[in-house]
Write a structure and sequence with these properties.
The chain has a seven-stranded antiparallel β-sheet with strand order 2-6-7-1-5-4-3. The protein has twelve helices and 14 strands. The two termini are 38 Å apart. By secondary structure, the chain is α+β, with helices and mostly antiparallel strands. Helix 1 packs across helix 4 (75-93), helix 5 runs antiparallel to helix 6 and helix 6 packs across helix 9. The protein has two domains: 2-166, no CATH class; 179-202 and 263-400, no CATH class. The site of zinc ion has 8 residues, from loops.
């Protein structure tokens, strides 16, 4: 079985929009209530609440006069919230995510139907009160529909993200074929090295145009009186432009990841702690705008479908500061230094191209040392790495003691 997700636009009637608003409200209230309970429980016992623990709180709430309106919400929607909340808590405790946040009615609203959604012609049929909602379905939904997430953007548009299970398996992941290393940067979005040449992929040009427009609309909205009708209208325009920006970006990331996956079997990237980096305010905008996390995500699922392999190398690997020719490592390489000359062998490096070469070499080294790479990488590409043992040993020590702060743009 393979899984596939498809996003479709929904066109609910006015009445359905009301039902959705009610469901969004219930789900949001239940999330916030459950999160509060988790916090209290944690203070008292040192543990969070499980999905079943959360679910067991629901029946008494539905009986209570003050919260009986919860009964009007399709019950599996609330149970999906319990599941997501208990997962969010678990991810936090296992250090994979930030602490779960309370949800606000001013942001994107969403609910999940864990099962029982069906396609009926050009519509989706939901269980419970919602019923058949008109949809714009581009591709036939060919698999068994599993979870469906319905969301409403601040601009007022409705979407359904449909997760399906389809027959057949993905091709077995293979490491035979072309290997590409990718350095994710700020000046250029991505710099690749495929063993022959370095290619640079700049950020999409029209993105800047939309971003300018977005900033302008945000300024206009900020000038309107809070709570006024004009402010509400202006905010809606901001939301619409924001959606345009994110559509342009997603489109670009889809095309670029498709191109890379079509041309390579093994893709090597740095395991970026994007969250950690966004805390650095100066770079925050550039990083969240370029969407590195989304890009790696796209690469990952496209490779899985095509039977390729994604390798993430340690984020402490000094990809920018290492000479790809002789493996001498320099101490400092400020972000604004775009080219440098190796003091040991005299090779002149373009910062990002050099990093992509190093990332590729490190990925191949990992493949060959994990054993899965024996059949990989055309043999000749594995051997030179092994021949570089002394230098490699030198920085594998560094990997174990990650004291080097990560310099964005390559490490
Ligand atoms: Zn050198």
């Amino acid at each position: 079985m393979r899984r596939q997700a498809v996003k479709v636009r929904l066109y609910p009637t006015e009445q359905q929009a009301q039902i959705l608003a009610q469901h969004f409200g219930c789900a949001r209230w239940w999330w916030n209530y459950g999160l509060n309970k988790c916090i209290e429980t944690y203070k008292a016992t040192g543990k969070g609440l499980s999905q079943s623990g959360l679910n067991s709180l629901l029946p008494p709430l539905k009986k209570d006069k003050e919260t009986e309106w919860l009964g009007e919400c399709y019950s599996q929607v609330l149970q999906a919230v319990s599941l997501n909340l208990s997962r969010a808590y678990k991810n936090f405790f296992e250090d994979r995510a930030k602490y779960p946040k309370f949800k606000s009615r001013h942001h994107r609203q969403s609910i999940q139907y864990p099962q029982n959604v069906k396609q009926v012609d050009e519509s989706l049929k939901f269980p419970g009160l919602l019923g058949v909602v008109k949809a714009k379905i581009h591709r036939e939904l060919s698999g068994t529909i599993k979870t469906v997430t319905v969301s409403k953007c601040p601009s007022g548009k409705y979407y359904a993200s449909v997760l399906m299970e389809c027959d057949g398996d993905y091709p077995t992941s293979s490491t035979e074929g072309k290997v590409v290393g990718i350095d994710l940067g700020i000046k250029d979005f991505a710099i690749t090295y495929d063993g022959e040449k370095v290619s640079k992929y700049p950020n999409p040009k029209h993105l800047a145009k939309y971003e300018k427009k977005l900033a302008k609309k945000q300024r206009i909205a900020a000038r309107k009186v809070k709570g006024s009708n004009r402010r509400r209208k202006a905010t809606k325009i901001v939301a619409r432009v924001y959606e345009q920006v994110s559509n342009v970006r997603q489109d670009y990331l889809h095309k670029l990841s498709r191109k890379i996956v079509d041309n390579n079997q093994v893709v090597i990237v740095e395991n970026l702690n994007v969250k950690g980096m966004v805390r650095n305010h100066k770079l925050a905008k550039a990083i969240s705008d370029t969407g590195w996390g989304t890009f790696i995500n796209f690469l990952s699922y496209k490779l899985e479908r095509d039977g390729g392999t994604l390798i993430e190398i340690n984020r402490w690997f000094p990809s920018s500061k290492l000479c790809s020719n002789c493996h001498y490592q320099i101490n400092e390489l400020p972000l604004d230094v775009r080219t440098w000359t190796c003091p040991s062998c005299g090779t002149h490096h373009d910062r990002d191209g050099n990093a992509a070469i190093n990332i590729r070499a490190e990925g191949i080294r990992m493949l060959s040392s994990s054993g899965t790479g024996e059949a990989n990488a055309n043999g000749e590409e594995v051997r030179p790495i092994r021949g570089r043992k002394p230098k490699m040993r030198h920085f594998s020590v560094k990997l174990e003691a990650p004291t080097i702060p990560l310099a964005v743009g390559g490490g």
